[in-house]
Amino acid sequence: MRTIDRNSFSLLVFHVLLITTAFSMGANAVHIDIYNDFGQGVTLTIHCRYNGADLGARTLPYPKAVGFDIDEKARGAKLSCSFQWPGASHSYNVYIAGWDRCHPCKWMARKSGPCLEATLFGDGGIDEQCHNWD
């Protein structure tokens, strides 16, 4: 009987530590979605790097998205992506810790440049901040 009690206690401690760790990591995570907003029939290839680590290339048909969860507290945290579509290739720093304040971040990739959508508080409207490609 004592063995069951010890096992139960060990399991309880493990779960508490697991939940605490997951919560503390989640508190520092920023979710970033990047949507292909080029219109019907245009496929977008996105290749991203997070703090120099290659996250791989993703091919997105319109209007699909790719999502990332990054640690905003990581020193020098930066998500940089290249964007390719028929006839063009550009890049953009999608997230830079200490500079960007979106949480979550919803980017719309367009031929004219990336646009960050932010929900306005109160009236439920959408504010867009559009940028030029790098």
Automatic annotation (TrEMBL):
Broad class of where this protein is predominantly found: secreted
Q: Name one Pfam family in it.
A: Self-incomp_S1
> Mind telling me which GO cellular component terms the entry cites?
extracellular region
Compartment(s) of residence? Secreted
User: May I ask which residue range the UniProt record assigns to the signal sequence?
Assistant: 1-29
Mind telling me which InterPro entries this protein's record contains?
Answer: Self-incomp_S1
Which biological process annotations from GO are given for this protein?
A: rejection of self pollen
**Protein keywords:** Secreted, Self-incompatibility, Signal
Query: Which stretches are annotated as coiled coil?
Result: none
Query: So what family is this one in?
Result: Belongs to the plant self-incompatibility (S1) protein family.
Protein name as annotated: S-protein homolog
Q: Which organism is it from?
A: Morella rubra
Source organism lineage? Eukaryota, Viridiplantae, Streptophyta, Embryophyta, Tracheophyta
